[in-house]
Specification:
Length: about 425
């Protein structure tokens, strides 16, 4: 039986994903989405040279020689507040009091912060000159009118959103989100709202997958639980095929009651593969409908289901969302202990990371059984043990996929930390 490598499986999946059409969303709904158009600045910011400090606008020549014992004494002839335009040109021997963000007056070239001055009536004493030109933000330092400030494909982070607000984009062109449906399958499963029955298994996968979608910004539709019964399964799968992405967990293996693959095939879904050389995660199936629904048959074991989401579903959804970086950021770390493994499968070991001087040390989260959810719950990353590696020693350099946070960063290998 042919097992596909993780990379080959990812490529096959991505070949079948299409970027969603661009849509217009309100600014506050755009966080985490991907820009579908370049964004140009529609003004200069700041619109004129402004003071970066509360202080005094001066001519540097007047204060160049000032010291604590022999301060410069200047006549204060104006008081300029943010939002007001100055009217007076500052001549030799004079200064203007100025607030942060206020336009600088003509004649001056430097702002002295208030902390380095003392005032007496109409006069200010400056006892320490800053550098010439200090504390002035030049016109257009932040945004230049007409300049492309954001690019198609940029992910909208809070910082990007701030720029969108500055160029007054009340609405933003972003790529659409894929609609995702989630189905759990298994006679043994008990729903969140069902009464507790100690002979049943609580459905964790629906909710774990829902949360994983949500971390990408996608509000998935929960289809509930289908029993291991081809008729019930078929009805739920048909419902799921109205979406861009259908996630069905459980029932995808070779068990006597594993009906997911045959039912999908009977519904006309082309199955592209169903065995991937990975641990945890096998079996994992992928198919497409004629209408373009990407169908993922995820393993029933909760850890496997979550790992498969990370490796396959998340990159697929991100491709649909217009992301350029589809995979998690990776770092290099040292292994805190030896790992015995079997060759022939890529192993995603759940790890925590401890920082030691200049590098991270990775430690297994403990029992790595595919049903032991705690290994996933406390994980900060996946240690990727390559397919052809049988064991790793303490201190070996390893690659870690980082799991924390929204995935705004690139997947570039940043190596060990530089102080
Ligand atoms: P299956 O892939 O259907 O053979 O299931 C493999 C294992 O995962 C079995 O022990 C199931 O009870 C368990 N399992 C399947 N689906 C879920 C689910 N939605 N939540 C928690 N455990 C599940
Ligand atoms: Mg089952």
């Amino acid at each position: 039986m042919h097992y596909l490598s993780v990379e080959a499986a990812q490529q096959t999946i991505l070949q079948h994903m299409q970027t969603k059409k661009a849509i217009c969303v309100p600014l506050h709904k755009s966080l985490g989405r991907v820009l579908a158009k370049d964004v140009l600045a529609n003004r200069n910011h700041p619109p004129y040279d402004v003071s970066a400090m509360d202080g005094y606008a001066v001519r540097f020549a007047d204060i160049a020689d000032a010291t604590k014992d022999a301060p410069a004494r200047l006549h204060v002839v104006d008081d300029i507040r943010a939002g007001q335009m100055p009217h007076i040109k500052i001549l030799q021997g004079r200064a203007a009091r100025i607030m942060t963000g206020a336009a600088t007056p003509a004649g001056i070239d430097t702002v002295v912060r208030v902390e380095d001055t003392a005032h007496d009536g109409d006069h200010v004493f400056i006892h320490r000159p800053p550098k010439q030109g200090a504390n002035i933000r030049p016109l257009g330092e932040n945004l230049r009118n007409g300049m492309t400030v954001l690019f198609k494909g940029d992910v909208i982070t809070p910082g990007v959103l701030a720029i969108l607000a500055m160029v007054k984009q009340k609405e933003v062109d972003v790529y659409g989100l894929p609609s995702v449906a989630i189905l759990s399958t298994g006679d043994e499963l008990e729903g969140l709202d069902d009464p507790l029955d100690e002979h049943k298994i609580p459905d964790a996968n629906s909710h774990a997958l829902y949360a994983q979608c949500l971390s990408l910004g996608i509000h998935a539709t929960l289809l509930g639980i289908a029993h291991d019964n081809p008729i019930e399964l078929r009805a739920k799968l048909v419902e799921g095929l109205n979406h861009d992405v259908l996630l069905a967990s459980g029932g995808v293996s070779v068990g006597h009651h594993d009906f997911v693959r045959p039912t999908l095939e009977a519904l006309g879904i082309t199955m592209h593969f169903w065995r991937v050389a990975m641990r945890p995660g096998h079996p994992f199936a992928f198919g497409t409908s004629q209408q373009g629904t990407a169908v993922f048959g995820l393993p029933g074991n909760p850890v496997s289901s979550m790992v498969c989401f990370e490796q396959f579903v998340a990159p697929a959804c991100k491709a649909a969302m217009g992301h350029k970086q589809l995979f998690r950021r990776t770092i290099k770390a040292r292994l805190g202990h030896g790992i015995q493994d079997r060759e022939g499968r890529t192993h995603f070991v759940r790890v925590t990371l401890v920082r030691d001087k200049k590098e991270y040390i990775a430690f297994s989260t403990g029992t790595q059984g595919s049903g032991v959810l705690m290994s996933m719950a406390v994980a900060e990353g996946f240690l990727v043990v390559p397919m052809n590696t049988a064991h790793l020693n303490k201190g070996d350099a390893v690659t870690i996929q980082l799991l924390q946070g929204m995935d705004f960063q690139s997947d570039a290998d940043i190596g060990s930390i530089n102080e």
